[in-house]
Structures are given as C-alpha cells and as structure tokens.
Design brief:
CATH superfamily: 2,3-Dihydroxybiphenyl 1,2-Dioxygenase, domain 1
Helix content: 10-25%
Strand content: 35-45%
CATH topology: 2,3-Dihydroxybiphenyl 1,2-Dioxygenase, domain 1
Largest sheet: 8 strands, mixed
Oligomer: single chain
Radius of gyration: 15 Å
Shape: globular
Distance between the termini: 9 Å
C-alpha cells in the first residue's frame, strides 16, 4: 500500500485464507495475479493485474464468517481527522490504530453492521 491514493477512496481489499501458499498458487494460475510476500502470514497483489490492490491474511479454519469476510480499506490523508469524523457521525473504532509495513491503519464500524478500515502513510 505504498502508492499515493485518493483521500477517502476505496484503495485496497483484504481477504482471509487458511492457506497462503495455496491461495497464491490459485490466483497466479487462474488470473495471473502478481504477489508480494510480507512474511508467512500475508501476501499482497497489485492493482495492475487485479483491478484493485489487495491482500490475503492468514486466518484460522474455525473463524466466524464475520471474522473472515473481505475487508474494504479506504485511504486517508489525515488518519486522526477521519477517525474523529467517524466517531462524530456515530461510528465506532473496532480496531485501534496500529502500524504495519507501509503505514498505519484502524478499523471502524459504521453502526449498521459494516466494518471497514482506513490507512495512511
């Protein structure tokens, strides 16, 4: 997620998989996607081949559907400002801000059952 993105636009989608290697092999073979490995528990794919940048994180087989649902990630030029706006509009922070390779992000709930993430450099 190192590319500069449009403020508050959908920028990334994250999926869960129980087997990183099999998932990578499947999408490379079927769709010719390119992957970058970020350790044993995460791979990312690029927008040029998939239409949107995204990744697969390692999950557990016994996860609930809510824990394994795709995660839509928005970009923000002002992470704290976006977080404050979410709270002011009645949303809540589901996962506090954390560091990851490439920046920081948090997850939020819109109060209607949807959980998304926001990231910034």
């Amino acid at each position: 997620m190192s590319q500069r993105a449009q403020h508050h636009a959908i920028n990334y989608i994250e999926f869960t998989t129980t087997d990183i290697a099999k998932t990578k092999a499947f999408y490379e073979r079927v769709f010719s996607w390119n992957f970058q490995e970020w350790g044993p528990d995460y791979i990312s794919f690029d927008k040029d081949h998939a239409g949107i940048a995204g990744g697969f994180r390692k999950g557990e087989p016994q996860q609930t559907p809510a824990d394994s649902a795709p995660l839509i990630v928005l970009y923000s030029q002002d992470l704290k400002g976006t977080q404050d706006a979410i709270i002011a509009a009645g949303g809540s922070i589901a996962v506090p801000t954390f560091d990851f390779p490439g920046g920081k992000r948090f997850h939020f709930s819109d109060g209607q059952g949807n959980v998304l993430a926001v990231w910034s450099e």
